[in-house]
Amino acid sequence: MKRWLVLLFGCLACVAQAAEPLPKADADARMQWFKDAKFGVFIHWGIYAVDGIDESWSFFNGYISHDDYLRQLQGFTANRYEPQQWAKLIKQSGARYAVLTTKHHDGVALWDAKQGITTKKDTPARRDLVGPFVDALRKQDLKVGLYYSLIDWSYPDYDGFLRDKKRYEVKDDPRRWARFVDFYQGQLKELSQRYDPDLYWFDGDWEHSAEEWQADKVRAMLLARNPDTILNSRLTGRGDYATPEQGVPIVKPADQYWELCLTMNDSWGYQPNDRAYKTPNQLIRVLADTISLGGNLLLDIGPRADGTIPEEQVAVLKEMGRWTSKHAEAIYGSEAGIPKDHYYGPSALSKDKTLLYLFLDGKPNGPVLVKGLKNKVHRSWVVGNGTKLKSTVLGKAYWSQVPGLLYIDVPEAVLDPQVTVIALLLDGPVDLYREEIKAIESN
Ligand code: GLC
């Protein structure tokens, strides 16, 4: 009985250990590059670019048959794929990392995986497309992220297939499910051993529970290979950061680390018929909003089946690059800004919180206003341009704790064509007045 109890507690302790998060300091150190990066490029590249249709979902949702969907394999040539050029462009955009779809829900692996459908074995591309990309990113000193879909709607041992048709139920055939689990974990092992990515971007966890995926085991396996690697949270929450999708968060997400993934038009992959592109201005404002709430933006591109990147997407990345390089000091390594109650717009703070950056969305009609700032401003200037600005505090009564209104004059000549950034050097870490304002009973 005693031995039995010891064993039981031993097992429980094991489980607790496997699922236990890292001590905070270690976790913060692991996440540092990611937190400082602010901007990454997402790449959805796959056979769906051949016909320019929705990645995987087009057959799952019944817009096209699975057979017709897979016929795109024959058109996936990658014959103008230049990973060095991709990496250069990504670098130029100011992104600090990129995430490539190594396998989407359709099950087509872009590396020469041992099992399953691959671009090497089943398409005219005839080669591993992931390795050269990883090398090219590393050459540009960019962090490497690999997207991997847990779901594989093409693999014969996967239970899901179409929205209205499953292959089988896991509870009815656990051995078949176990075969799938072995297969997918084998693929992850290949990715980790061959490419040792800095980040894994899981997707599709919603079809199964953590127990069915064996999520804790997967996390432990990947971290055993590389204790510094980062996992997004689409591994039934066993990851390191949250992944809001498409909508810019309105309130600061609860997770300390997060990344907004966003399409440039309305599609993840290449769809020439989708002209709903957001402009560089709109995307830069999204980036500013994201930075203001302390997150990262993962902006998506969808290369064509031949490996070229559509011109509209290249143009967006280049303009992002002009803006990010000019305003680098307000972007990389910055912290979330001040609440909008104090400044009607996105803002950011330096790590020591003595520099406040204000992002100016448009042309101001009058001086820019900051309210409730207790600090003195030693100096204010235009980031990336250096022009000193005149600031004035109005309405400050010497006997009151309530700060006055800080007005900063921003002449039209210094405005950036997209988003202007103003820096305020404070007399110490930012200090905000957050009290209720009361009646004045004695003057
Ligand atoms: C969704 C979709 C997928 C896309 C992903 C990117 O979860 O399933 O098609 O790749 O979001 O965030």
CATH superfamily of the largest domain: Glycosidases
Indicate the CATH class of the largest domain.
Alpha Beta
Strand order of the largest sheet: 9-8-5-2-1-11-10
Major sheet details: 7 strands, parallel
Number of helices: 14
**Beta-sheet strand percentage?**
15-25%
The coarse silhouette is: elongated
Q: Fill in the CATH topology of the largest domain.
A: TIM Barrel
Mean pLDDT: 94
What ligands can be seen in this structure? alpha-D-glucopyranose
Contiguous uncertain segments of 5+ residues:
1-19
Please give a handful of descriptors for the protein shown.
443 residues, alpha/beta, TIM Barrel, Immunoglobulin-like, 2 domains, 7-stranded parallel sheet, 5-stranded antiparallel sheet, 14 helices, 19 strands, 32% helix, disordered N terminus, binds alpha-D-glucopyranose
Give a quick summary of the entry.
This protein has 443 residues and is an alpha/beta fold. It is 32% helix and 19% strand. The longest helix is centred in the middle third of the chain and has 22 residues, at 174-195.
Write up this protein.
- This protein is of the alpha/beta class and 443 residues long.
- It has two domains: 22-326, TIM Barrel, CATH 3.20.20; 335-426, Immunoglobulin-like (Sandwich).
- It is built from 14 helices and 19 strands.
- It has helices at residues 2-19, 24-37, 48-51, 57-60, 66-71, 83-93, 119-122, 130-139, 174-195, 210-213, 215-225, 280-292, 311-326, 328-331, and strands spanning 39-43, 97-103, 108-109, 117-118, 143-149, 160-162, 165-166, 199-203, 230-231, 259-263, 296-301, 335-336, 347-349, 355-360, 368-370, 377-382, 390-394, 405-409, 420-426.
- It has a seven-stranded parallel sheet, sandwiched between helices.
- Residues 1-19 have low confidence and may be disordered.
- It binds alpha-D-glucopyranose.
